[in-house]
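Session log. Operator J.P. requested a structure for one protein chain; no other inputs attached. Running the standard single-chain path with token output.
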Amino acid sequence: MTDDAPAVRAPGDPFDPPGLEWSRVSGKLVTARLVPSLTTVGLLAVVGAVVALATGAAWVWVFPTFFVLLALWLLWLVPRQVHAIGYAERADDLLIRKGIMFRTLVVVPYGRMQYLDVQRGPLTRALGLASLQLHTASAGTDASIDGLPAEVAERLRDQLAARGEARLAGL
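Structure written below.
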């Protein structure tokens, strides 16, 4: 089965409600997540190799080897994680799903949104990406969508804010 093939869902799967069109985040999020991770892991591998060369002890090569294997694992894992992120807008709420092994589905009713943040760091700005953070009255709500194209994040922020105000006015 390829990554592009749709996953087989069991009837009544709570992570894939029927009739929803899921929107995906930008594939550039893979780069935004890999650059800092691989930079750190790469530097640790180089330091480990320098120490191994300086000491001449064969067992010290375990450390740079570990970091190289960690880098390879990140190269495999991060694209799969990014591919699993999606969001869907319904009439009364926004759904955000994440995860492959440990899956999460967050449902945020528009009337419960207090405010929305659009965040862009230096790397995400260079890639044309932004993150949208939704804040509700519940401190435990982790409602954020990373890796949105900047114009989509701004449009979504304005659209969700308008829907939230409309639902709040109806209370």
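Operator note: The chain has a mean pLDDT of 88.
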